[in-house]
Design a protein that fits this description.
28% helix; 7-stranded mixed sheet; alpha/beta; 489 residues; single chain
Length: 489
């Protein structure tokens, strides 16, 4: 994937700044999805697109002649993209001074030392009630966390403001404007905050153009993005983030971004008329995005373990106007065979639990195991599971151990301040290992009087010769019941 993304748009991904008209702000790691959507909708040509311009992973540059690209038709097409967060009119870029040379920072990144354990303060004496106070840990400064490399010091903020103030081209969109606003997206570790950039740059622009600032309803929205040691100055053309297209009354705390949901649906290879299931649907973002993209031509199903969340998702379905085409019910994702018929689902697209909004007693490995095993009953052969997960290693290990799946893709993306992984796995028709074990078992069964040497049921109790589950499903792992306290006599 990195080679495919970096090579797209030609060997030179360092476009001349004067040739860049627009920038698309996206999720890093989904560059190919963005480009595919643009080409599919025939908005621009491949030669006009440059992914990761100047090494910036969260952007796609649109290059060409201003008169040919900056048209109302192209702007409207870019505004309708499902895989993009913001459409930016590019002005200029520059770099900030770094605390260390890039070579030293790269070497430290490769040879990263293990963080030192945090020191604990000595225990204090017991208080009058005989209770010991809790141990308190020393806090680290924000910019001295282990494994974090500070790229730019506080003097870089002064250089940033001076460069914007003295830039000869300036910000053309502020000429004649009545009000403006400055926002900043900062990626990397710096000894200044996003708010520092917004306040200082806002003061510089006010002194140069003599127009008032308005944080609620500005006429011009200026973006000053600081990515590592590169600063990009642009004007945001969309009033609201493009990915916030679903106005929902119920929002789940761990809901996935619509732009990420769109990418996951595209990775599943969905066609019109397919049945798509989201067994961890939450507020239903994946379902509403699928209904919006395929214009109601899919059969959509969702489930959750909580009745409260299911009621909230049904409320959202009514607001989206798709309550008749989407089925949402209470179901356990580890027991899908109890709620959905065999081979009734074409694709499963879901956001797996990350361990943030779940109970501390919940073992995520058991959840992942039960989910993938129970999916073999309802998912058709050749169907795909596209899952977003934070702990990708444990999920991939479980997929490989089961032997029912072929991993097609595993890519890390950036969403917010986290880097989860999208895992695409395809359901196999037969597992050669299971088939071989059953053949050997049948062969040796007539030679012995006791249990066969290769008893597959030791691991999974009821598989047939194709490695497909029969009656008792291995995903049906009973919950551990808490022992009732003994009654005192």
């Amino acid at each position: 994937l990195p080679r495919r993304v970096m090579s797209f748009g030609g060997n030179n991904n360092e476009p001349a700044p004067e040739s860049v008209v627009f920038l698309l702000y996206i999720n890093a790691g989904l560059q190919d999805v963005v480009v595919s959507e643009i080409l599919e909708k025939k908005i621009l040509s491949e030669q006009q697109l440059k992914v990761t311009p100047w090494g910036l992973q969260s952007y796609v540059a649109i290059c060409g002649k201003q008169s040919e690209i900056d048209t109302e038709q192209i702007r409207a097409g870019l505004m309708g993209l499902h895989s993009v967060h913001d459409l930016l009119r590019f002005h200029f870029k520059f770099t900030l001074p770094m605390l260390k040379p890039p070579e030293e920072i790269a070497a430290e990144t490769v040879q990263e030392e293990e963080p030192e354990p945090m020191e604990e303060e000595p225990e204090e004496d017991e208080n009058e009630d005989g209770d010991k106070p809790k141990k308190r840990r020393k806090k680290r400064p924000n910019n001295k966390k282990p494994g974090a490399l500070v790229l730019c010091g506080p003097e870089a903020l002064r250089v940033l403001c001076d460069t914007i103030r003295d830039n000869p081209t300036g910000v053309p969109t502020l000429e004649g404007a009545k009000s403006f606003r400055v926002t900043c997206d900062r990626q990397g570790r710096h000894q200044f905050t996003r708010t520092d950039v917004q306040i200082n740059v806002g003061t510089v622009l006010w002194s140069r153009y003599k127009i008032k600032g308005d944080m609620k309803n500005p006429e011009v929205h200026i973006r000053v993005d600081v990515v590592l040691n590169t600063v990009v100055v642009s004007t945001m053309l969309n009033e609201v983030e493009l990915s916030k297209r679903h106005r929902l009354g119920f929002t789940h705390k761990s809901s996935v971004k619509p732009s990420v949901a769109y990418a996951m649906l595209k990775m599943a290879g969905i066609k019109e008329g397919d049945t798509v299931l989201d067994p961890f649907c939450g507020g239903g973002t994946v379902l509403w995005e699928a209904n919006d993209v395929w214009k109601g031509k899919l059969k959509l199903m969702g489930s959750e373990l909580s009745q409260k969340i299911v009621d909230g998702a049904k409320k959202n379905a009514a607001e989206e106007g798709c309550e008749s085409t989407v089925q949402i019910k209470v179901a356990n994702a580890r027991h899908l065979h109890k709620n959905y018929e065999r081979d009734s689902v074409d694709h499963i697209v879901t956001n797996l639990p990350w361990g943030v909004q779940v109970s501390k007693k919940t073992d995520l490995n058991i959840v992942y195991k039960g989910f993938y095993l129970s999916s073999t009953r309802c998912l058709k052969v050749g169907g795909r599971i596209v899952a977003l997960v934070l702990t990708a290693v444990s999920v991939i290990d479980e997929i490989r151990r089961q032997g029912f799946w072929k991993i097609l893709d595993a890519r890390v993306i950036k969403t917010g301040d986290l880097c989860p992984t999208i895992i695409v796995a395809e359901r196999l028709a037969k597992d050669p290992v299971w088939t071989s074990l059953f053949e050997q078992r049948k062969l040796f069964a007539s030679y012995v009087n006791g249990p066969t040497p290769t008893h597959v049921g030791d691991l999974y109790p009821d598989f047939d010769e194709n490695g497909v589950t029969g009656g008792i499903h291995p995903g049906q792992i009973e919950e551990k019941k808490e022992e009732e306290p003994k009654k005192e006599k």
